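Example 4.3 (complexes with small molecules)
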Amino acid sequence: MTPAISSDAFAPLAGESSTPLYRQLYDRVRASIAAGDLAPGDRVPSARALAKELGVARGTIELAYELLTSEGYLLARGQAGTVIHPALPPAEAPRPQPAAPAEAPLFLSQDTISRPAQLLPFQMGVPAMDAFPRKIWARLGARYLRGMQAADLDYPPPHGLPALRSAIASYLQVARGIDCGAHQVFVTTGYRASLQLAALAVMQPGDRAWVEDPGYPPTRQLLRESGLLPVPVPVDAQGLVVERGIALAPDARVVTVTPAHQSPLSMSLSLPRRHALLEWAAAQGAWVVEDDYDGEYRYASRPLPALASLDRHGRVLYAGTFSKVLFPGIRLAYLVVPQAQVAAFERVARIFFAAATPAITQAIVADFMAEGHFSRHIQRMRKLYAERRAATIVALERGLEGRLRTEPQPGGMHLVLRLPGERSDQALAEKLLAQGMAVQPMSRWWASERSDSAILLSFTNCTTPAQAERLGALIRQSL
Ligand SMILES: Cc1ncc(COP(=O)(O)O)c(C=O)c1O
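Answer. The structure with pyridoxal-5'-phosphate bound is encoded below.
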């Protein structure tokens, strides 16, 4: 067994890089294995020794080692130390993955490359994993599997199972005030697939597209990769500043917006702004993509009707997802398109996305909705989140000893904690990650140069106030 501390994998880490330290180490070890620089059976330095050597927190090294162990690259042998897994044949060593690009966000949903192996406290974008009604789900799933007929083994219809499309249309009518028929609902594998479907069906390369600033990074990335030109438009206490959008890009053909709870600041788009946006879109012939990822979770009052419910000119493409109301691993979402666009979307869906979503998943969700479990689950979650949110705020602010306060918001699944002065939210988020807390730095959400510092933290899985108090204390100590 050769001690491997001399390998390049364990050279000093780049503190100024936007890639988290644990991630740099993880990437390097994998690359060194692939290059044959680290061989199966080689001993890696202990987390304590390496942390000391590199001058970083021990938690940083442990996090990288944990990831590498869970993926089979390392083997912990107790007293005998940790080694490169002896079962890894050098010839078949996996290729190194390219490091995440500098602007890649930390742990965004679907950002599986930089996502930690296990769910960490305060991680954004995930509903309460302990509260999903698994027994009901298992019962419906088993019933469907037992009753499958020959026809159920065929490709599902390209735009989604009729039963699911109509369950979604009925739900939207009641819960979000959207007047649509099942034929306007296109079932997809996630929000990005919905946006891509819209881009292929009605957008043109070179079109200018307003994006909220700050805003959900994958939206602008996907638009850019589709050849569109994202134009960052500021948001204020009333959400997207429509008049600024008109001033900045009056000729835009696309607007992406999160009206229920702006991502990531969580304010709602005010009624006058909603009307102004729809009037402008109708006059300009622009498409408004309404990203309603968490509209159900409002605590100050009943959920607001969707922007699409006010659309009299057929300009809104409504994107909904099951990631927040069921669970993200389900990979199920939908796009509701205006009546006049159905044929154009059907064509594109058939060519590019035909039958992309498994029939089994669609059928179980259709039953889950039709039998009332879906509405009941949402109601229960709304209550649970209101409680967890309140308890998290109290405990976090106790830990902060009054130094900072969370921003009051009407809804959403996370809290925003603004940092004073020039504090780097990124450095703080990395430090907290090394302590096992997966908060997000808001600077990653900004498209423009301006980037106020803030920490974003989800409360949906925060079950013990002590966790939040500890987070508050760690943040306070770093101020
Ligand atoms: C702003 C926003 N839109 C959409 C989504 C949903 O994406 P998906 O359906 O791909 O899970 C998310 C998930 O975190 C989000 O934060």
